[in-house]
Structure formats: C-alpha cells, structure tokens
Specification:
The chain has 330 residues and is of the alpha/beta class. It has one domain (4-322): TIM Barrel, CATH 3.20.20.70. It is 47% helix and 10% strand. The chain contains 13 helices and eight strands. It has a four-stranded parallel beta sheet with strand order 3-2-1-8. Strands 4-5-6-7 form a four-stranded parallel beta sheet. α7 links the parallel β6 and β7 (194-196). α1 (33-45) runs parallel beside α2 (65-79). It is globular, with a radius of gyration of 19 Å. The termini are far apart.
Length: 330
C-alpha cells in the first residue's frame, strides 16, 4: 500500500469528460471515454506523477452508477498502474461509497479521494468511525481524505486528524488548500498524513514545512500540467527563487477568478462550472457539457473563468518557449 512518503510530484485532478447532450436531465451514457484516454495519456506524458479522479471537478455527485463504472474502468485500464491513482468514491450513503470503493480497488486503483457520505452533517465521532470502518474493510487501499469543509459541512478540526492516525491506518494523505495551522496538523499526525496543497499554495506550504511539501494537486492540470509541475518540482529541489517565480506566474493566470475564490460560500455553488469553463478555454482538454443541476452560472463568472483558461494557455506557451520565470506577468 502507498504511504505518505510515496506521494511526490504533481497529482493531476481531471474532469470527467462529457459527451454532447450530457447537460440534459434525460441523458445517459454521458462519459466521453475517448477524450478520457487521450487526456490521461497526455497528462502522464507532460509530467503528472499521480492522478485524482471523481472529486468535485470530476462531477462524482452527478454521475449515474453506470457512468461511474464506465469511467473508472476506462481510467484504471489506461493508467495501468503507471502512476498512483486515487479514485473518488463519495456517495450519499456509506453503503454506496463502499460499493464504489471496492469497484475502484478491483479495477486497479491505489486508493480513494474520500469525503463524507452526503446528507446530514457529521460529527467528529461519526467522521472518525466512518474512516476507521473504511480502513478496516479495505486494509490495503490508501485513503486521501477529501477535506472540503463546505462540500461536506464538516470542519475537519485538529482533533479529527490527531485521532485519525490512530483509528484509520490506511489514511495517508489529505487534499488540502489552506496553509493556516499546517505546522500543528503535521505535528498532530506525526507526519503520517501528507497534507497535499493546491498548486497555487505550494510556495506557502513549502515556506512552513519544506520537508513535507512533496506533492501537490491541481485541477488546473487539465488546462495543461506544466506550470503546476514546475511549482512542485521547484519545491522538491528547495529552489525558492524558481518557486517564487512560478508562484507569481500561477497567480497571474488565476487572477481573473480570485474575486470569486475569495467568496468561498459563493464559489461552492459554481465550482464545477468555473473549472470546466476554464479548462475548455485553455484548449488542453475537451471537458464537454456540465451535468445537471450545476449547468448554470452567471455570465460574469463564466467570463472570468474563460479569461483564466486563456491566461493559463498563454503561460504554457511562454514556458514552452523557454521564457524566464514570471514572464507571464509582463
């Protein structure tokens, strides 16, 4: 089984590519498997060292069981254990989550990006019991805790993490975003949990704990992974000058959507839409339509997402041309 120390480099988070018409309520067989295969192979070619599928951007909550299984089967077959693969399995019920977990495990995934069963908010006691039961039921299947407080209406407090390492030995990582309290989290979990930052927070995490900042995640990878790869590679080399420059480039590309990101409660309603629109605009991936009911977004947010995607494409072109770090800013 994977351990926290095995996680290195960029973990690309991808959308679940959708076929035309997938935005209709009556649609079925919505997954574009050809685009899925093309995207995965290109991400591995371009520097991704791991993959995460079927989180929020992957529209896990809006896929039918048939679409879920078709997509997971395709992803596991294409990846073929070339890199670590975490497959999301969050569902309304723990029973359905377990069914998805075993399906992903049996197809060849290494672990799961796993959040809380969704409906009632959970208490810390409930959350710990859930992860403990998953860990006991699948003792060789790694858990990446999906620590999204707004999606799951649970704050993942320090006491949760301190107890998690005692009751769920297969929990090795957390998909994380904010650096506040990071040092205390690392201490409380005795470095058994790899708190993996988003690409735009790699520099912050590295500044707090350079030895444990070994991997990052990026939904931006589906726009082309090279900037995020450059950020985590600079962190692994402890090249602060390069990391600072790449961080500035990524910040420039993301600038159009920062106003929305600064309103977490608002962004939570438009997360999928922003991701798929900017991915489409960047041109690296064909994500396809947004599945209902989330295929609604105010025009200003959509325009900001498109501008973000265009800037990311510009950044990739300049990096490919060998321009100096922070060239995009100018």
């Amino acid at each position: 089984m994977l351990t926290s120390g095995d996680l290195r480099g960029l973990y690309a988070i991808i959308p679940t590519p959708a076929r035309p018409g997938a935005d209709a309520l009556t649609a079925s067989n919505t997954v574009d498997l050809d685009e899925t295969e093309r995207l995965l192979n290109n991400l591995l070619r371009d520097g991704s060292r791991g993959l995460i599928v079927l989180g929020t951007t992957g529209e896990c909550a809006t896929l039918s069981n048939a679409d879920y299984e078709a997509f997971v089967d395709c992803v596991c077959s294409v990846v073929g254990r070339r890199v670590p693969l975490f497959v999301g399995a969050t569902a309304l019920s723990a029973h359905e989550a377990y069914r998805r977990l075993t399906f992903a495990r049996d197809r060849g995934a290494d672990g799961s990006l796993l959040g809380m069963p969704m409906w009632q908010p959970v208490t810390t006691e409930m959350a710990l019991q859930y992860y403990a039961e998953v860990s006991a039921a699948l003792p060789a299947f790694a858990i990446m805790v999906y620590a999204n407080a707004r999606a799951f209406r649970y704050g993942f407090p320090l006491e949760f993490w301190a107890e998690l390492i005692k009751v769920a030995p297969t929990a090795i990582s957390a998909k994380y975003a904010r650096s506040e309290g990071l040092a205390k989290l690392i201490e409380a979990t005795k470095r058994r949990i790899n708190f993996m930052p988003i690409d735009m927070s790699v520099a912050e995490f590295h500044g707090i704990s350079p030895e444990t900042t070994t991997a990052c995640w990026a939904t931006a990878a589906a726009m082309g992974p090279e900037p995020a790869v450059a950020a985590i590679d600079a962190a692994l080399r402890h090249d602060e000058t390069r990391l600072k420059a790449i961080d500035a480039d990524i910040a420039w590309a993301n600038e159009p959507i920062m106003g929305l990101l600064a309103k977490p409660d608002v962004f939570a309603s438009y997360n999928i839409q922003v991701e798929k629109i900017r991915i489409e605009a960047a041109g690296y991936c064909r994500p396809g339509p947004i599945r209902p009911p989330y295929n609604v977004i105010p025009q200003p947010y959509a325009e900001a997402a498109r501008e973000c995607g265009k800037r990311w494409a510009t950044l990739r072109r300049r990096m490919a041309a060998g321009e100096t770090p922070a060239a995009a800013v100018g």
